[in-house]
Amino acid sequence: MATSPERPIGVFDSGVGGLTVLSAIRQRLPHEALVYLGDTARVPYGTKSPASVLRYAAHAADALLARDIKLLVVACNTASAVALPALQARLDPLPVVGVVTPGAMAAVAFRRGGRHLVLATESTTRQRAYTAALQALDPAAEVEELPCSLFVALAEEGWTEGPIATAVAREYLSFLDRRPAARRPHTVILGCTHFPLLHGPISTVLGKDVAVIDSATTAAAAVAVRLREHDALTPASCPGALQLIATDGAARFARLGSAFLGEAFTETDIELIDIHPTDRD
Amino acid sequence: MATSPERPIGVFDSGVGGLTVLSAIRQRLPHEALVYLGDTARVPYGTKSPASVLRYAAHAADALLARDIKLLVVACNTASAVALPALQARLDPLPVVGVVTPGAMAAVAFRRGGRHLVLATESTTRQRAYTAALQALDPAAEVEELPCSLFVALAEEGWTEGPIATAVAREYLSFLDRRPAARRPHTVILGCTHFPLLHGPISTVLGKDVAVIDSATTAAAAVAVRLREHDALTPASCPGALQLIATDGAARFARLGSAFLGEAFTETDIELIDIHPTDRD
Fold first, then answer.
1. What is the predicted pLDDT for the residue at A248?
2. CATH no. for residue A236?
3. What is the interface pTM, i.e. ipTM, of the complex?
């Protein structure tokens, strides 16, 4: 692998949300070539059976392998929770980085034996993947997971600041105000790829005493570490190309995705592919 | 058909939203037996291809036919827009009622040559089914369709009244304030099965000069008309049984659905079936 560090990093998500992870990787590693695959024909993964998620993730990984990637980032929380070991086995010796473990590592690094509050979608909180990852790293960690579905809708609608976003964050988090200080969390983990867009109102409501951990940024840091371990960082002379692929709905992908990536792009910048040739829908 | 009016009415939706239609039918026709099928394994239909929606709708109709229904209500806006003619042909001579046409008929009845504003999901507004139905009934009708995705999230979160719901309604509808009275709509059609839950805040923001048309209530009225036409109304001596079927996630279906139905039920009240035996997801 060390022989061709110019190969791209592959980033895979069920939809546009993983573009926040892509954006964090670009900021951290601006010289890397990146290829992003949003499986928009199948979004959301969170309501699908584990067997289906495993199958979709394998298809997506294969499609990115065909682009000669040197590392795979599973930016989807559901796929990270369900399919990471299977993908690691399938792609071995290629490194595969998920979003759950890096976020959990950052939270535990901030505070051992700490109290952690995970904000995520309903399906992610039901999987308890962050609880498992946090307690594997630190058995003394106390973890709560809180479903915050409306944050997804706010992010997709582009209502990421202003009074409505703040009121929604306050409504979800007001239960913390009724707790004694000794029961409040030390960290709040943004455990959904959409939630970094709402970092502002969430942080405002939580105040300065809570560390807000963004699993997009921590995943990007984990990517940098893994590439360094494999001696596969792209030289600083490289321009850092970006390729966007979706499996359906390029217009919606471009409209929503620009905010998630933090950079405008249009439908014509997206390559549409079919990665489920044996499925009929 | 007139020989067994005690047969149930079948109501089909992609998820829990159609329970608002079921609720309206129960209020209108309390003696009817009802069987509801939520295709929760496939929700949402709005992002699926028309070919897939046609296939899912056919499977759902067949599953309800197996329960000996006397009339099918397609409570899903996407399926109504895409699959109604195909379902009518498939089930003929059984009557099939969608949600789009009854809402359009009520709006046109309220005001011929009127201005109509349709609030719906992004996928429904993209299909322009309400525009087509309104202008088929009244070529002089002026129609706008406005995607209001956050209403879906609010309804599913149970935040259907209070300052956040009102602020969201105000944000979506504030563009009307900037219009001269002569350009404001005569009717606002709630073109998503979730939106009747937000009738309160939407009506508050619109004020008294706009007629809010709820496509659940208008669909229920259409069902009553069709049963009367077919001489298939259940006698008033019947108790009005209710059967709930889902294709996945009974716990979530019960938790969300109780608010949509306006009556508490639990997971154990739901029959889980598999209506896509040839699909692998």
1. 86
2. 3.40.50.1860
3. 0.87
